Amino acid sequence: MTRQTALAAAARYFDSGALKTDLARRVAFKTESQNPERSAELAAYLETEMRASFEALGFTVELLAHPRAKGPFLLATRIEDAASPTVFGYGHGDVIRGQDAQWQEGLSPWQLVEADGRWYGRGTADNKGQHTVNLGALAAVLEARGKLGFNAKYLIEMGEEVGSPGLRELCAAHKDKFAADVLIASDGPRLSAERPTLFLGSRGSMNFDLEIDARSGAHHSGNWGGLISNPGLQLAHAIACIAGPTGQIRVADWVPSELPASVRAALADCEVDGGADGPKVEPEWGEPGLTPAERVFGWNAFEVLAFRTGNPDNPVNAIPAKAWARCQLRFVVGTEPETILPALRRHLDRHGFAMVKIAAAREEIFRATRLDPEHPWVRFAQDSLARTANVKPAILPNLGGSLPNDIFSEVLGLPTVWVPHSYPACRQHAPDEHMLPHVARQGVQLMAGLYWDIGERAK
To answer: Residue 70 pLDDT > 90, yes or no?
Structure first.
């Protein structure tokens, strides 16, 4: 059997409708990790769906637990030859809240619906669709070769959307069980729908709350306007001193010291493209002097995710007593999470905003990671994808979003290579999340080719 045999088997898995059927079954699990009522669904996804899927491929399966986790972890292991390399895979079966009422008419987060050349459903892009593609690729190689040609371990967690609580501790406690030579996994979007992509790490992410609690209640704006402070106005000014009118960060300690030459070189041929339905890049927004790719993959970004003061649904003529904002810093390697909030405290105090309270929004923090684009595993994967797709893949030193990649790179000590099967306008974390069928079809072939080549390398 040949590499082409494996690629043909992967294409057949898609063309027969089997991939769509598998994904539809998985989408139907309402695995909302932010919803405490879904704990049974989180466990069932692993016990009744993932266990059977991995065991059908000759993996041994065990469920692991940690007291801090939202649900169990599944570790699937297939050891063929102790002398062969071991590839560690990862995916997550949890999703964000379905937001059922906000989907287009005829669509549901818990039903895979094909419409307008898309597969709609919660988890199609993040992450059920992506690990479904990878499992199909493993099956294609097994069909073609009768074995993988390497050892494989695959971890599925059920808490990524809430910061992967317990994952770090689990990996630290089971280093021997999780030992491998490389992480090859799939999550996040490609650079564009039409260009296969590798990313080698992720930006870190810290969410935090800003709040002003001025007094016990609201007061009539006619009687008290001009006499007492307005927390909404104060908080707006505080936020304005954090970032300028075009989004440029003004907190000195949050600004990266440089854009490394290796990062700039890797991003030189990368054009950010959300497709026809995605937002258009606004050239004037963000750090001046950087290309769009450098701004999203090589720099830090501050965002305001929500802002509330008074009663937004029913405004009244009263000066509000409080104002609150949920904010976020996405950060690259070189920004240490422990320094982020202390630096902000100093900055706000210097600008006269000592009344603003700062609090981390959640305990878990994804740290920033990057693998050298010249790493041998990167070059190997790049050559494999190019051979399958007949096009040069984009190489991103890190994803613009955030993943628990630091756990794999720092705790387990693995080089990390990600091959995403989504695209920028997939609407993950929003109503109408979807996967593009042609990307899924190419993705299962890309992964089958990559897995095949690893087996050939191990000979």
So the answer is: no
Strands (E) in 349-423, as ranges, are 357-360, 394-396, 416-418
Q: Which residues, including other chains, have CB under 8 Å from residue 5's CB and lie 6 or more apart?
A: 144
Looking only at the bridges linking them, the beta strands covering 151-157 and 86-92 are parallel
DSSP secondary structure string for all residues of 97-109: ---GGGSPTT-BT
Instruction: Give dist(CA 272, CA 425) in Å, integer.
Output: 11
Give the Cα separation of 64 and 167 in Å (integer).
Answer: 10
What would the DSSP string read from start to end of 136-197?
HHHHHHHHHHSS-SSEEEEEEES-GGGT-TTHHHHHHHTTTTT--SEEEE--SB-SBTTB-E
- Rg over alpha carbons for the chain, rounded to the nearest Å, is 23
Alpha helices in 335-432 (DSSP H): 337-350, 376-389, 405-406
Place of tokens 């935090």: 208
From the list 321, 332, 286, 302, the residue with the least C-alpha distance to 239 is 302
Q: How far is CA 309 from CA 100, 314, 318, in A?
A: 27, 11, 11
Interatomic CA distance for residues 291 and 414, integer angstroms: 30
Nearest Cα to Cα of residue 404 among 196, 190, 165: 165
Q: Check whether 339 has a pLDDT greater than 90.
A: yes
Task: Identify whether the C-beta of residue 395 lies closer than 8 Å to the C-beta of residue 388.
Answer: no
d(CA 451, CA 254): 40
Helix (H, G, I), strand (E, B) or coil at 35: coil
**Distance separating alpha carbons of residues 301 and 298, to the nearest angstrom:** 10
Tokens of 81: 């030859």
pLDDT, tens only, 182-238 = 999 999 999 999 999 999 999 999 999 999 999 999 999 999 999 999 999 999 999
pLDDT of residue 419: 98
Neighbours of 115 (CB within 10 A): 12
Q: How many CB atoms lie within 10 A of CB 291?
A: 18
Q: 3-class SS at 204?
A: strand
In the three-class reduction of DSSP (H, G, I as helix; E, B as strand; rest coil), residue 113 is classed as strand
The closest alpha carbon to 193, from 293, 268, 277, 266, belongs to: 277
| Other C-beta atoms lying within 10 Å of the C-beta of residue 303 | 12
**CA distance readout (Å), 367 to 210, 222, 334, 454:** 21, 48, 10, 29
Quick check: 301 and 287 in contact, CB under 8 A?
no
